[in-house]
Give the backbone structure.
Amino acid sequence: MGFKCGIVGLPNVGKSTLFNALTQTAAAQAANYPFCTIEPNVGDVAVPDARLDKLAAIAHSVQIVPTRITFVDIAGLVRGASKGEGLGNQFLANIREVDAVAHVLRCFEDDDITHVEGRIDPVGDAETVETELMLADLESLERRVVPIEKKAKGGEKEAKEQLALMMKALVLLREGKPARRAELTPEEREPYRQLGLMTQKPVLYVCNVDEGSAANGNKYSAQVEDMAKREGAGCVAISARIEEEVAQLPSAEREEFLASIGLEEPGLNRLIRAGYELLGLITFFTAGPKEARAWTVARNSRAPQAAGAIHTDFEKGFIRAETIAYDDYVTLNGESGARDAGRMRLEGKEYIVADGDVMHFRFNA
């Protein structure tokens, strides 16, 4: 399980440049005019995780298989998109298909790159996009709620439950608030997600800063950080131009280049970590002579669910999970050392998987 992250924002904020850098391709045309991205470009990238390399070295793995994340570069949105302005209808259709929204905001000044509204105001840009999404959600819900109300009045239990969730969202949207602010019980979360509301999706603000601000941000990114804290959203500052340069360098030269500009790692790493935290995802590993592999599951997943991430048969026939904490695996030099030191545990169906666990599943075929 990885996740699909939609890269959205107003035209000319650097979405396609960032997408090109992240996927190390030139698939998305980056140009100084609106709607240069018309069809959503999709790219899978490996999730960087230094722990995987250490595990592979200890287990003498022939192959290293990281988990992956999918980025979708979506056409730029403009004011009025909820009414079909620009490429609004297409934008809205594409954003409904992603798990989270990486909202790219222009946090740099450049007279050579026009802003669609003629000013540099990342918080205002965020509000423009959020407003269009809320209007689209509101219109969609108000249309869909009518037949549900009729069924609920007729006594249908499922319709009553669905109507209650719809009303939670409608109250917020009518107040100009995104649907993700709804207070939900654990049992309501999945059916609420299935309402397909765009403003219910988690948001990660990506501040596209100038090269000189890549390490510490600037006054514009600081404004976005304050907004993100108020909303409980994620926030990361990245220079799309630097990421593009880094992507074109040979692997051996990247670390030296980043160090020369005061960065310890590419922005991609920070973006993925922020995305994982936003969606509540963790990584567990399998390691052996054939391969060392990373797997992604939701935080608080139980051992059978983790087994199911590898193969559905593993979950159905789950017996036990041989589990070693990552630090123990490294410190004790692998599986045999951990077993000899009593640090390998046999965990059952109720075990909550921890980030970094190295696991081997026993199951009935």
User: Anything to note?
Assistant: Residues 206 and 247 are 18 Å apart (CA to CA).
